[in-house]
Amino acid sequence: MTAYNEDATHRDPLSGEAGSGAPGPAGVTRRGFLKSVGASGLAAAGTSMVSVAVLADEAPAAVPAPATGPDGGPYTVQFTVNGVAHQLNVESNAVLLDVLRDRLQLTGTKKGCDHGQCGACTVHVNGVSVNSCLSLAVMHDGDQITTVEGIAKNGTLHPVQQAFWDHDAYQCGYCTSGQMMSAVALLHDARVPADDHSLREAMSGNICRCGAYKNIVAAIQDARGKLRRA
Ligand code: FES
Ligand code: FES
Question: What residue stretches are annotated with the 2Fe-2S ferredoxin-type domain (predicted)?
Fold first, then answer.
């Protein structure tokens, strides 16, 4: 059964009430709370969407990591991440997700289950969605890799990022970068029909523990329309 269930309830983590804008204790709404905490506090809590917005404003040019280092290894791999070429020495069992996060400091890609079951670690390799927790870095010599930090252009959010923001398509945000990367890929995949059911099936590898599926589907369909008009 897909986790993308139309009946999934979107519950407020503060109030426990259903609905994204439901008031919590002392009349506090989630949206109001998020505004009061501010972007830096949310980023520290691991909120991917805010990280995306901040990164878009700060022009996320990845800094090439040193070719060798204390966490290097005997195998040399060269690949491009978000348009920046890297040459790294890695161990044979170095996992792509760990290399992206720990060697290149691209922490927008999240480690959820670390077993290929949640989709939080989704990146694009040569334009195709990949669970980076299941992929060895040495397998990607010559590949073009895109992470969530690489989909905003010139300080402007990708239409999928903007739609997630507009539709409040997240709660804790931990799954959000993976959801958006899968969404970007499927919107460019002509094999996936445009209806909601097909979209849910295509996104079923991305789990949202907060149950924000209804808003995620709405956001992706909104982005689909904007990409068509672009
Ligand atoms: S962390 Fe890779 S699928 Fe869950
Ligand atoms: S927004 Fe919390 S896991 Fe999806």
Answer: 75-151
Ligand 1 site, residue 114, Cβ cutoff 6 A: yes
Average pLDDT per consecutive 10 residues, the chain (230 residues; last block may be shorter) = 52 39 44 38 37 42 51 90 97 97 97 98 97 98 98 96 98 98 97 97 98 98 91
CATH 3.40.190.10 describes domain 75-150: no
Homologous superfamily in CATH for domain 37-59+153-229: [2Fe-2S]-binding domain (1.10.150.120)
Alpha carbons 83 and 14: distance in angstroms, whole number: 39
Do 44 and 62 contact (CB within 8 A), yes or no? no
Q: Using the atom order of ligand 1, give the atom closest to the CA of residue 118.
A: 4
Q: 205 in ligand 1 pocket by Cβ < 6 Å?
A: no
Residue 88 CB–ligand 2 contact under 6 Å: no
List 87's β-bridge partners, or say none: 78
**Ligand 2 atom with minimal separation from the 171 CA:** 1
The pLDDT of residue 157 is 97
Per-residue confidence (pLDDT) for residue 229, from 0 to 100 = 82
Q: Which ligand is nearest to the CA of 111?
A: 1
